[in-house]
Every structure is written in structure tokens, then in C-alpha cells.
Design goal:
Elements: H1 7-11, E1 42-43, H2 64-73, E2 82-89, H3 95-103, E3 117-126, E4 129-138, H4 145-149, E5 157-163, H5 167-171, H6 173-181, E6 190-196, H7 203-220, E7 223-226, H8 235-258
Parallel strand pairs: 1-3, 2-4, 2-5, 5-6, 6-7
Antiparallel strand pairs: 3-4
């Protein structure tokens, strides 16, 4: 993995010309320039959480207003944009493998530490609407921490990764989250705590570590997942969940900003409609 030389290189790449937030002055993807979304990246239903005890929300479907808005949106040329997702955690916990397992369907046992920051762009179609995740893979080594941290700002989701076979990496998860939050609004970011290398743990070991991980997830209001990049166990479900929840948050943000006051308008957002579909009482990133 190679360090990105400048932020401008990332943000002005032809494929990365979409906006990163739902602010009114930011760019969106020009979907006319892109090939169709792959069939295995189409999301028509909200994926289930990994554990109801540590989930951002446990509803079976997307927010009703999101579903209604998408029906309207499908007939338009503008999409609901790109979400910036940063992936943080100790060195060698498997951040790069986690991303590559999903984006490239590849697992490389010859581990090479990320130098600085790298990223992947993954395109989806959610409820018939184009949507992309920009996955920022950050270095876990202390000497590159200052470089990686410059890319934390503006995240709509933060994935904190730890190694299920290495308890110390879970203990460090809180610090990684605190560092990532310094440049983000805590009320605007969706959090995920992900245990990797599930295939290396015995059932007893996994149970013990998961109890600690779930407790931490509840405390920091994050959604917990356990996956294996090597076997692929849980990888697709996890990233589909991330894409779905960030998409939902983005749409709710757009609807809130449009703020129609007409009683019969399907995109009207009021306090009475903001129920448990809004993940963990976190506001969509509207900065």
C-alpha cells in the first residue's frame, strides 16, 4: 500500500469527483461517466446487524422516509453522493486485508504494512440509487500516525479494527477512536468496532473476547462485528451494513436540509418521524 501524496490527488481523481458530505456546496458523482454498478453490489434490503446487543439500530428495514425519497430519486440524474469511511487500528490487525477482502476478493498472507494512507472506492446501488463508499486505509505504525491523522477529518463512518486473537489491540481501540474523533463531530459519525482474524480463535477464546468487545461497543455507541478476511466470513455482510447505514444517514441529512414544511410532502422530516431508525441517536453528517 502506498502513501497518498496529497489530498488533492484523491479528491480530484475522475472517479473520486463525488462529494464527501451532504453539504449543499459540494460535488456529487456524475453517474453518466461511470459503468453500471456490479450486480453483487446492489442493496435492496437493510442488512441485519451482527449482534443485537451491539448494533446502531435493530430495525428490519430502511427508514420509511428514506424509502420514499429513493422512489423519487430514481427518476432523477443526481445521486446521494459519496461517504468517507476511515479505517483505524493497531499495526497488523488486518485493516488492509479487511478492505481488500471485500473490494478485491483477495487475501494476501504476505503482509505489508500500509505507509501513510491508501484508499479504495466501492460503488453500490442502494434502493435503486447510486452510492459510493470511499474507504481510507490508514497506517497503524506510530511513525506514520501524524500523516494518517490528517485524513481523518470529514468522516461519515469510522471503523476501528482490532485482532480477535490479540486482546491488546482491543484495549487500544478506545485510543484510536479518540484520535479519529478529534477532527470529527461525535454526533455526526457512525462507529463500527470490528474484530478480525476470527478464523484464528477457538470458540472459547472468541466468546471471551467478544464479551469485552460488545461491552466496549455499547459504551462508545458502536456497532460490533467479527469477521475473517482469510475465509471471507462476515466480510460482505459487514460492508453492506456499513454502506446501508451511511446511505441512510446521508439521505436523512439531505431530507433535513431540504426541510419541506408542506404537510403532505414525502421528504418532510420532523421530530415525530425521527425514531429508532436514526442510528444510535447520532445525527447525519450535515457539516
Amino acid at each position: 500500500m502506498h502513501w497518498i501524496k496529497t489530498r488533492q490527488e484523491a479528491f480530484y481523481h475522475p472517479v473520486l469527483s463525488g462529494k464527501l458530505h451532504c453539504g449543499s456546496g459540494e460535488k456529487k458523482e456524475d453517474n453518466s461517466m461511470l459503468p453500471p454498478v456490479k450486480k453483487d453490489r446492489i442493496i435492496s434490503h437493510l442488512p441485519k446487524c451482527f449482534s443485537p446487543n451491539a448494533a446502531l439500530h435493530t430495525k428490519d428495514g430502511f427508514h420509511p422516509q428514506v424509502q420514499a425519497a429513493c422512489q423519487v430519486q430514481k427518476s432523477r440524474t443526481v445521486s446521494f453522493n459519496i461517504a468517507k469511511v476511515i479505517v483505524v487500528g493497531d499495526v497488523s490487525v488486518g485493516k488492509t486485508c479487511l478492505i481488500r477482502s471485500f473490494c478485491k476478493a483477495d487475501f494476501d498472507k504476505n503482509y505489508k504494512a500500509t505507509i501513510g494512507v491508501d484508499f479504495e472506492m466501492e460503488r453500490f446501488e442502494v434502493l435503486g440509487v447510486p452510492f459510493s463508499l470511499q474507504l481510507w486505509d490508514t497506517a497503524g505504525q506510530e511513525r506514520f500516525k501524524c500523516i494518517a491523522s490528517t485524513y481523518y477529518r470529514g468522516a461519515q463512518a469510522i471503523i476501528v479494527v482490532f485482532d480477535l486473537s490479540r486482546v491488546s489491540s482491543l484495549e487500544h481501540a478506545r485510543q484510536w477512536l479518540e484520535d479519529a474523533m478529534k477532527d470529527n463531530d461525535p454526533s455526526s459519525v457512525l462507529l463500527f468496532l470490528v474484530g478480525t482474524k476470527k478464523d484464528l480463535s477457538t470458540p472459547d477464546q472468541l466468546f471471551q473476547v467478544e464479551q469485552e468487545a460488545i461491552r466496549l461497543s455499547e459504551e462508545i455507541k458502536a456497532e460490533y462485528w467479527a469477521v475473517s478476511s482469510k475465509s471471507g466470513d462476515g466480510i460482505r455482510d459487514f460492508f453492506f451494513r456499513v454502506a446501508s447505514l451511511t446511505f441512510e444517514a446521508n439521505v436523512l441529512c439531505e431530507l433535513e436540509k431540504m426541510g419541506s414544511r408542506n404537510e403532505g410532502d414525502i421528504i418532510r422530516l420532523t421530530d415525530s418521524t425521527e425514531d429508532n431508525h436514526t442510528p444510535a441517536k447520532r445525527k447525519p453528517n450535515c457539516c
